[in-house]
Design goal:
alpha/beta; Rossmann fold; four-stranded antiparallel beta sheet
Length: 307
């Protein structure tokens, strides 16, 4: 078996890999599915003659195909505004956004961008459009002209993927909040997107509902989907491969979660805490226990304690 080790990352576009058994270095390049170049966006001023409120201030990012990226920040940092640029719900006032090789500023590409980059919002009630679960999931494919037999297949596959197939004949009003959110995710999956943006999908759910949605998000990533998770729960951000911290419409940090959560003092300046496991690991180290650096998930901490 051949093992490769990452020894250096060149931003988010490539990595230098070392093969110990072959004694060779390889530069691995990644294909970007979303690119932002000096993106700016301002909301209209609330008071006449006042300057527009700048929500995004010169953001440049590359999101690699198949990656799992979390975006965090305090209220008003620009998280949701940024998320809406990923599938052309908002258009930049400056700079450009490119999704799957298409510019969001090109009106001829809008619907194809939204098909390829689906979005799941915070409140599931705002995303459901039909009185029957399976009809709701079929709504998207029907509107882009998918053949009826294929729609049936997509609906069934999508509902099974989120564990809601047995509820396909029910009305959404009979479902719990977590179940509604799963139906909303199924509706996006039925469009066969390459990327899914989750804008605080667990904010209105109880702990059990949150766990169910996170399991689905992790499963989608394992299947190869590009996942972008906007969240204010640090435990959720710890599950990602990369965490982007926004502050005042700018990128404050952009790195792997284990590196980010070693910066407790710096994160506190941005009103951000640590995941419970990372915080507990710090306290245990202060007591003399040799908890490995990079222990940021409850599973990792539990493994250490059990050993």
């Amino acid at each position: 078996m051949i093992y490769f080790f990452v020894i250096y990352s060149f931003g988010s576009s490539s990595q230098l890999l070392y093969c110990r058994s072959c004694d060779i270095l390889i530069v691995m390049k990644f294909e970007s599915i979303i690119q932002l170049k000096d993106v700016e966006f301002s909301y209209p001023a609330q008071v006449e003659a006042a300057a527009p409120a700048k929500a995004l201030d010169g953001i440049s990012l590359d999101i690699e195909r198949g990656s799992f990226v979390a975006i965090v920040g305090s209220n008003g940092s620009g998280k949701s505004t940024l998320a809406k640029h990923f599938n052309a719900l908002l258009l930049p006032g400056g700079g450009e956004v490119i999704v799957c090789g298409m510019k969001t500023s090109d009106p001829e590409c809008t619907w194809e961008i939204r098909r390829r980059c689906g979005m799941v919002f915070q409140n599931p009630d705002n995303q459901l459009v039909s009185s029957v679960v399976e009809d709701d999931v079929a709504f998207g494919p029907e509107n882009i002209g998918v053949e009826p037999l294929r729609i049936r297949e997509l609906v069934d596959e999508s509902l099974k993927a989120v564990g809601m197939y047995e509820h396909r004949k029910k009305g959404p009003h009979l479902l719990s909040g977590g179940q509604k959110q799963r139906v909303a995710i199924a509706g996006v999956l039925a469009m066969q997107p390459e990327c899914i943006v989750f804008d605080e999908p667990t904010a209105m759910l109880d702990p059990a509902g949150r766990r169910d949605i996170l399991k689905i998000i992790e499963a989608l990533h394992e299947e190869g989907k590009t996942v972008i998770l906007i969240t204010h729960f640090m435990e959720e951000a710890a599950l990602a491969e990369r965490v982007i911290v926004l502050e005042g419409g700018r990128v404050a940090f952009d790195e792997a979660p284990d590196k980010l959560f070693s910066r407790a003092a710096e994160l506190e300046k941005y009103k951000l805490g640590l995941p419970f496991a990372a915080s507990m690991a710090q306290k245990l180290r202060a007591l003399g226990l040799k908890v490995p650096e990079g222990t940021i998930t409850q599973e990792g901490l539990a493994d250490f304690i059990c050993r």
